[in-house]
Fold this sequence. Notes:
- By secondary structure, the chain is α+β, with helices and mostly antiparallel strands.
- The chain contains 4 helices and 28 strands.
- The chain starts with a helix and ends with a strand.
Amino acid sequence: MVCDVFFLLTLPVLLAGCGGKSSGDDTGGDTDSDTDTDTDTDTDPDEDPDLSCGTDDDCPRATEAHCDGSRCVPCTSGDHCSHLGGLPVCDEGGCYPCSATDPGICAAARPYCDATAHECVACLEHGDCSTQTPYCDPTAHTCTECLEQSHCTEPDASQCNESHECVGCGSDEHCTDLAGRPACESGVCYECSTTNASACTGETPRCDTAGHSCVQCLAHADCHEAAAGQCDETHHCVPCTDDEHCAGVADLPHCAAGTCVACAGYAHCPTGQVCNYTTHACVEACRECHPEPDDCAAVLGEGFSCERDWPATDARWHCFQRAVAEFPACERPWVRFPTGICMPPTTTTCQGLLEFGQVCDPDSPTPCGDDDIAGDGACPDPEGYCTYRCIQDLVAHDEWCLPDATCTDVGCVR
């Protein structure tokens, strides 16, 4: 009797564990049956047509290209991608044009594979590009002329634009990578320009704006060396041939034998001085001296010697210069004597010669010249300037007067 009661009490539990239902739980049993049916429906391929398949051709997605049974799943080999045009390579479950280990369809204009993007590209590094477009853009993976300004090395194409093309400069900043061509003008980098003449320095400090080049000189004033005072047609400083070529040489305004000098003749020296033909320096004229020892050459320079002043009969000695090839007859008013020495005319003395043109008093007993030599100098009235005689044996000698004076009855006058 006890066993019968236990069996009856446990029967509903046994039936529930076996999937059955008791006669008193109809509603609960129907609910469980409906739930099982809904779960099976969620996993049914017929409910997701994009993933249901019969063959690989039924799987159009690159990420689920292989038909496994009746469902599209990720590929595991390139064979699973063969039905997808242009995506022949399987890599990590997806179909792509290429991969790091398989070039796939990459060829011709885009022969390399960007493994990160799985795309065929023109280049991966600079070595993949040609000499015409030698740089690989790391973002677009295309070969370009330049990536930065330093890649543009032609004077007429020194700027790298936004399209990665080398084009003409737009400012001096675009010329900084071209050695010796820092100035931009009209799209070309030059040595200098009308707006950047200061680019010229050193031995070629001037800018020839017509040729856009740095040159030694543009004018004679740009040449500062005595041995090269002239600016020639090629803008080089060369030896002078005329005094105007010495405009840029300080304190050496005259040209002598291709060199700019202080003097090339007596006319270039102030009153009381003569030009030393050897050193081309102005030195004291008629310096008093003694024949022994003769110190004229030591003091005034080569070519000078101590000579007796003509026509003085007493011991009057002065330094005089020997005639040279440039002035074989001596310069006016000096006269060449048989010894080859340039001395005052025979009608006056050093003092009379040096006082020429000075203001004088006609009423003075010895207004001009050497006081101890009668007739050495004269102060004709009304001129009131010192002069000296220049007529000898009734012949007027203009050459005994300074270059700007002439010989008259009263003497040399301007």
